[in-house]
Every structure is written in structure tokens, then in C-alpha cells.
Amino acid sequence: MKLLERLKRNKEPVRELRWWDIGILTVILFGNAICTSTRGYFANTDTGSFEEAVEFSAADNYGAFMLQLILLLIALFYLWLRNFDFSQWRIHVTPKTTLYSVGLFAVAALMMDLYFIVVSYVQIGAYDAVMSAAVPVSLPVIDGSILIYALLNGIYEEIYFLGMCLCVNPKKVRGAFLFSLLVRFSFHTYQGMVSAAGIGLLLGTLYYVLYEKSGRKNLYPFFLSHSIADVLGAGILFLL
Predict the structure, then answer these.
(1) Are 168 and 88 in contact (CB under 8 A)?
(2) Residue 186 in contact with residue 37, Cβ under 8 Å?
(3) What is the distance of C-alpha 137 from the center of its chain?
(4) What is the mean pLDDT of residues 93-121?
(5) Interhelix angle for 19-47 vs 173-186, to 10°?
(6) pTM of the model
(7) What is the pLDDT of residue 127?
């Protein structure tokens, strides 16, 4: 433990991360995901189908859970070595914030529904776009593996995008936010550019704006709303 303490270069708690910190954390948490997503995008471009790319088995979910858990621990260990001030991360779990999480999911899901309707309108016409959105869709199959993975994934992604990327010098928050959008987009490309743009740019911007506008900047609602979307999907009209 004494050796690890000596590795800490900062005696005072670090509240603002530098650009290389964000770069290192990005590589740790999303380097593999970005490479895998990019390969998946080109592979599915060749076959002309992106549907198969979003189907995961229970084994895939458990494997992803273990990988993310390990990578998250490595990232947190790096921040500990940097003497990062973890106390600035506010995670308050209350009935009110849980209800807010559900509302946040509903708003985000409705926004994604409208986004895909607009995209469909451009691609196939207004009538077909509306009718396509109205077609009943069966609920996704929910098992223990997806629940466990979703709970971790919501924390894993949003602790990076909101908890790490925005812990920079206030003058550099906008640049860090734009970089975070690029990262969020880049590891969703295996779903296709349309979906990646919606998830990476639209949802990323919505989460950023709501988080920045919130008074206490509580991370918990964003963790949970993200997890709900991982379980039910980024849409709500088919649930009505």
C-alpha cells in the first residue's frame, strides 16, 4: 500500500481532469468497444443488414458484464492514483429521483421515437413512416442476464460521460462535451449510422443538457434511465 501511495502524484485532491486523463479513461473504458463497433459496422455494411448486430445472448450479456466490471475498476483505480476527488460525484437514491429516472427514460424514448419517424419520413414518406411507428412491437425478452448487464452498463457509460468528461476546467466543458458525443456515437456504429446518430448525438445532448441544468447534478437518475433503456429499448410508442 505504501508503494501505491507513492504513485499518487498529487497530494491535493484533483477536482479537474486534464485532457490526457480523459484520453486515458476513454481508451480504458471504450477503446475495445469502439474498435469492435467499427469492425461490426463495416461487416454489416457488406451484408446490408444491421438487425443481427443488436441481438445478444445471455452468455454475451454475462461476458460483457464481467468485461465492463473489470474495465470500470481499472478506470477507478487510475482516478485513485490521480487522487481524484470522488466526493464531487453525487449519487442520491430516493423515491423522487427514481420517479424522475422513469420520466427521463420516457422523454428520451419519445425523442428517439420521433427521431426515427422523421428519418422514416425522409426515407419512405410520411404515411408509411407513421404507420410503421404504429405497428405493434413485442416486448423484448427480459432475463436475469440483461437486467444485471443493464444496471452496470447504465453506470459504466454515464459515469464516464457525465462524471468524468465534465469534470474538467469550466472553460473546457464544451469541448469535453463534444468529445463525449463523438465517443458515444463511435461505439454505437455497429447498429448503423442512423441509430448511432440518434443514440450518440441526440440522447447524449439531452442527457448533457438535463444534467447541467439540474441543480444538484445527481448522477443516479441518468444511471437508472439508461439502464431502463437498455432493458426495454430506446423507444416508448410501442409500449403504449
Answers:
(1) no
(2) yes
(3) 24
(4) 93
(5) 30
(6) 0.87
(7) 42
